């Protein structure tokens, strides 16, 4: 009986280690939810899933893309997509308070995907997540730059602000990444 307990404990450790390996290095962090004290473990949230990371702003001509991002979240979350929104004032189009940013996201656009406290996406104070994305693909040139990251982290595709989440190019790339993640 003692041997079975030890074998079970070892197996549990191996399973745990295997699932931890699926967590992408640059997402092994916690982030504060927008206008909240709650911390979110990004590793736990995203492991083994395709991730869409977007730098957002409340007062930008592209802000209406929140509707399409929310639709992506609703349509694909059960297929393994996680949408992460990071407000940034690097382009001087974000509200001055998190409370006002939250109102734009949650009240005006009905966002239910994860939105986080404002960060910097370029310059000296660039958040490590965006440093990684920039090194893998391109630096955000404006608000609503979109990064699709494959579940294994080997593929990072960026889409400019002008590329809508409903565009054929974006949708084809997303669906291919989701299909590969389930193989």
How would you portray this structure in words?
There is one protein chain. By secondary structure, the protein is α/β, with parallel strands linked by helices. The protein has a single domain, classed as Glutaredoxin (3-Layer(aba) Sandwich). 39% of the residues lie in helices and 16% in strands. The protein contains six helices and seven strands, in the order H-E-E-H-E-H-E-H-E-H-E-E-H. It has a five-stranded mixed sheet, covered by helices on one side. It has a two-stranded antiparallel ribbon with strand order 1-2. The N terminus is likely disordered.
Quaternary structure type: single chain
Shape estimate: globular
Order of helices and strands: HEEHEHEHEHEEH
- Reported CATH architecture: 3-Layer(aba) Sandwich
Task: Tell me the name of the CATH homologous superfamily.
Answer: Glutaredoxin
Strand order of the largest sheet: 5-4-3-6-7
| Helix-strand category | alpha/beta
Task: Provide the gyration radius in Å.
Answer: 18 Å
Biggest sheet architecture: 5 strands, mixed
Tally of contiguous helical segments: 6
Number of strands: 7
Return the average pLDDT rounded to an integer. Answer: 90
Query: Which ranges are low-confidence, i.e. pLDDT below 50, for 5 or more consecutive residues?
Result: 1-21
* CATH class value: Alpha Beta
- What is the distance, rounded to the nearest whole angstrom, between the alpha carbons of the first and last residues? 38 Å
* Beta strand %: 15-25%
The name CATH uses for the topology is Glutaredoxin
């Amino acid at each position: 009986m003692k041997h079975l307990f030890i074998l079970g404990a070892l197996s549990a450790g191996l399973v745990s280690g295997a699932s931890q390996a699926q967590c992408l290095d640059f997402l092994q962090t916690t982030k504060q939810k927008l206008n909240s004290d709650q911390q979110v473990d990004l590793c736990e949230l995203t492991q083994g899933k395709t991730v869409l990371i977007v730098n957002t702003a409340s007062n930008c001509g592209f802000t209406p893309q929140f509707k399409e991002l929310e639709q992506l979240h609703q349509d694909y979350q059960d297929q393994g997509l996680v949408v992460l929104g990071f407000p940034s004032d690097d382009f001087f189009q974000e509200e001055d308070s998190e409370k006002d940013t939250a109102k734009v996201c949650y009240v005006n656009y009905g966002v239910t995907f994860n939105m986080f406290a404002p960060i910097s996406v370029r310059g000296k104070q660039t958040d490590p997540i965006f440093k990684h994305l920039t090194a893998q693909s391109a630096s955000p040139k404006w608000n609503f730059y979109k990064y699709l990251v494959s579940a294994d982290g080997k593929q990072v595709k960026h889409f400019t602000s002008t590329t809508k989440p409903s565009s054929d190019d974006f949708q084809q790339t997303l669906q291919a990444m989701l299909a590969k993640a389930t193989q």
